[in-house]
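About this split. The held-out portion is used to measure sequence recovery: a designer receives only the structure tokens and must propose an amino acid at every position. Recovery is the fraction of positions where the proposal matches the reference. Here is one held-out target exactly as it appears in the evaluation file.
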């Protein structure tokens, strides 16, 4: 999980560059694994736009989710939940 300090810095940065509600793009990289992929996908509602792209070697999978977020706090909360998934790289 993210520390309170990291969450607050992220929230402040997001509020500086976005007006809410706003379309927000989440990006992650992971080694393809069914359980990990399911855990990441479960963070987002079915209506979120999803894009998967494998690396040239197929060793890594890039996931992009685009969704309308209502506030910086909602984005921070999503990143906090994602940080609990082992082996997930947040971009």
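Reference sequence for scoring:
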């Amino acid at each position: 999980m993210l520390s309170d300090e990291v969450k607050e810095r992220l929230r402040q940065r997001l509020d500086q560059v976005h007006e809410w509600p706003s379309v927000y793009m989440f990006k992650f990289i992971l080694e393809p694994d069914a359980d990990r992929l399911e855990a990441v996908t479960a963070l987002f509602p079915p209506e979120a736009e999803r894009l998967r792209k494998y690396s040239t070697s197929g060793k890594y999978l890039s996931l992009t989710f685009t969704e309308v977020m209502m506030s910086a706090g909602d984005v921070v909360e999503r990143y906090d939940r994602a940080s609990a998934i082992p082996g997930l790289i947040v971009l």
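Annotator remark: The chain is about 35% helix and 30% strand.
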